[in-house]
């Protein structure tokens, strides 16, 4: 029948759209992408809200065992895959859509808010963002900085850059594996502080004045939640700000217009060096 | 009390989130941004759906008579402003948020899907989009092509460009004005065909191989609606495709990855010159 890919938005169970809720309630089988469950949307709460059982499908299942999701749809059931944010924000779901259509299954997309749209909440205009980069956790011997040249390109063109921060889920515990056990480490979510430190390190490596200590950046946490936190300041200042629980992301600002700055100021660290250096003369009002 | 800025998403009344619906239903005063009413969301339908009266506020009111919206909130009422898409996608609402906060009014943002996220439905990855451009209706003596250099910058960096197409609402009828009457022309929405033609004209003016006849482009219409239409092909081919009713937008592709192309192919004009020139050798599978 139909495979519904349904965005859950960014907050809790009530951020699903009415259209999405109606679709869920007519599905025979409901999968919840596992990422979701670590992202403060609780499976039990969703089940109560929908009045339907929900199965957790980890990303591995969605990627490599897609048949678990597709086969029932081919056999005449209505199937839903629930995804945090919007279903078209991740490549995983593109792949699933292609496979579903190739097997003759109708796919219905139900959009919702995603982090890539919600970042507009800080006041920076969405049309002024360039390509999005991912910041991976640096390891002892693996400190890739390929994001650097992308941020540089955006910035040279006056554009802001949204940095999505690494999430490690189901990381194998190699020490335990050596002892013959399959153990996973607890999930890790990169915070703004770590991201800012890594960006400053990348600046030291490349030295092209892209993410310097003094550059204007915005840290965002739990966007779309009641307790969301937005703090603007220099990149160095963000290293020591407390953003609280995950999920975090970071913006490196390009050129800012007056209206953008007007809004950003509301989120700026009160004694930010950026404010002192760049905004004091406009503050006379 | 609280000013709620509530995104309605892209489709019909059922695309509001459950959180948004709950907020609307506890508001004393509900404004609907007028843009909305021309965008297939019917005021009467919304009123039925909410069980509450809705007032249409045209963009002029939101921009220059914001007090109509802010004053009641200052006087202790809960006020909602309903916006098609996501409230942080347009600068208008940034300005309203700043003014509200300056007057001590709490602002609550309720996000939803926006065109800038939903374009991912065509298979092009959102993280690979550069800055967004606006294509204005060319007039006899006013044919600005400042979008051209922005598309070029994106493309040189491998990025896709989303082109938002002009909407003319409440355009004064100058002929009638001369006769002393205030008459507005019917609303105009730029279609993909016109946009493609204008881009080709801009290419002729600048000649830097940015939006050539043969470049890969994607036309999108009524994204998020049941009858959405996505067609990929060369820019020249899109000039003569029928996309149906508004709202339209257009993407000029940058570098495409395999997975992106896999998905785009599903939307490609069957005998597209792009397919013949670039994809035939991969088609052997």
Q: What does this 3D model show about the protein?
A:
2 copies of one chain form a homodimer. The mean pLDDT of chain A is 91. The first copy, chain A, has 285 residues and is of the alpha/beta class. Chain A is globular, with a radius of gyration of 21 Å. In chain A, the strands form 3 sheets. A 5-stranded parallel sheet of chain A has the order 3-2-4-1-5, sandwiched between helices. The first copy, chain A, has a 5-stranded mixed sheet with strand order 6-7-12-10-11. A two-stranded antiparallel ribbon of chain A has the order 8-9. In chain A, 46% of the residues are buried. Chain A folds into 2 domains: 2-113, Tetrapyrrole methylase, N-terminal domain (Cobalt-precorrin-4 Transmethylase, domain 1, 3-Layer(aba) Sandwich); 116-284, 2-Layer Sandwich (Methyltransferase, Cobalt-precorrin-4 Transmethylase, Domain 2). Chain A has helices spanning 18-25, 35-38, 43-50, 59-64, 67-74, 91-102, 115-118, 147-156, 174-178, 192-206, 235-238, 258-264, 273-279, and strands at residues 2-7, 29-33, 55-57, 79-83, 106-110, 133-135, 161-165, 167-168, 188-189, 216-221, 229-234, 248-252. The interface between A and B is large, with 56 and 55 residues.
């Amino acid at each position: 029948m139909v495979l519904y890919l349904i965005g859950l938005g960014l907050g809790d169970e009530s951020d699903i759209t009415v259209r999405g809720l109606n679709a869920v309630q007519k599905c025979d089988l409901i999968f919840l992408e596992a990422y979701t469950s670590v992202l403060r949307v609780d499976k039990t709460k969703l089940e109560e809200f929908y009045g339907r059982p929900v199965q957790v499908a980890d990303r591995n299942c969605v990627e490599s065992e897609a048949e678990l999701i597709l086969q029932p749809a081919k056999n005449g059931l209505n199937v839903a895959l629930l995804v945090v944010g919007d279903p078209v924000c991740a490549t995983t779901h593109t792949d699933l859509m292609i496979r579903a259509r190739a097997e003759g299954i109708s796919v219905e997309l139900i959009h919702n808010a995603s982090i890539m749209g919600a970042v507009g909440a800080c006041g920076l205009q969405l049309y002024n963002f360039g390509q999005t980069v991912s910041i991976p956790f640096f390891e002892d011997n693996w400190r890739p900085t390929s994001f650097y040249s992308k941020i540089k390109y955006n910035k040279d063109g006056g554009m802001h850059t949204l940095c999505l921060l690494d999430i490690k889920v189901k990381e194998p515990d190699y020490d335990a594996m050596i002892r013959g056990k399959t153990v996973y480490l607890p999930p890790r979510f990169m915070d703004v502080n770590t991201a800012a430190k890594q960006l400053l390190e990348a600046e030291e490596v490349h030295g092209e004045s892209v993410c310097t200590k003094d550059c204007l950046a915005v840290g965002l946490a739990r966007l779309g939640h009641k307790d969301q936190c937005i703090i603007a300041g220099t990149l160095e200042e963000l290293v020591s700000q407390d953003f609280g629980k995950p999920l975090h992301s970071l913006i490196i600002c390009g050129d800012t217009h007056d209206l953008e700055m007007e809004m950003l100021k509301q989120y700026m660290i009160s004694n930010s060096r950026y404010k002192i250096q760049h905004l004091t003369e406009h503050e006379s009002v």
